[in-house]
Amino acid sequence: LFKDEEETKSSRYDAGRDGFIDLMELKLMMEKLGAPQTHLGLKNMIKEVDEDLDSKLSFREFLLIFRKAAAGELQEDSGLHALARLSEIDVSTEGVKGAKSFFEAKVSLSTRSQRAEKERSKRRTPGFQLLLQAWCLAWPSGC
After folding, report:
1. Residue 104 banded pLDDT, cuts 50, 70, 90
2. Number of folded domains in the chain?
3. Where in the numbering of this chain does the EF-hand domain appear (predicted)?
4. Is 5 exposed, middle or buried (0-12, 13-18, 19+ CB in 10 A)?
5. Alpha-carbon distance 139 to 143, whole Å?
6. Cβ-contact 3, 98 below 8 angstroms
7. % of the chain residues with pLDDT over 70
8. 3-class SS of residue 119
9. How much is the average pLDDT of 112-121?
10. Nearest 5°: CA angle at 12, between 96 and 51?
11. Containing domain of residue 130, as a range?
12. Which residues of 23-60 are buried (b: 16+ CB within 10 A; e: fewer)?
């Protein structure tokens, strides 16, 4: 599910843009993949691979789904088995690199978002407002 085109798909499902797939995002993903799950089924899917108990799927936990599928450790009627079967990732080849790229992109996006928020915060400070007012007084057409 995570390579260049898969990255776009996962971004579509990662509505929170936090680099994780939470319960509602997993629900949407499963529906889009044509394998809708019940609320309890979705919770069980996350619980089965949620190593850090944060109730969402990280890069490592996502890969764990495919490791378990490859090892035959998933029940055939489980949501995780359906996800592994329906996803276009081949973890043994390009999938790991693709998944890694997805999460690296998410970290980069998060870092850029944090920088942008710091910049917005700085612009709200009294000192910046004074500079902006001085600028507008000196060059009214620039404001």
Report:
1. low
2. 1
3. 13-36, 37-72
4. exposed
5. 7
6. yes
7. 56
8. helix
9. 71
10. 50
11. 4-142
12. eebbbbbbeebeeebeeebbbebbebbbeeeeebbbbe
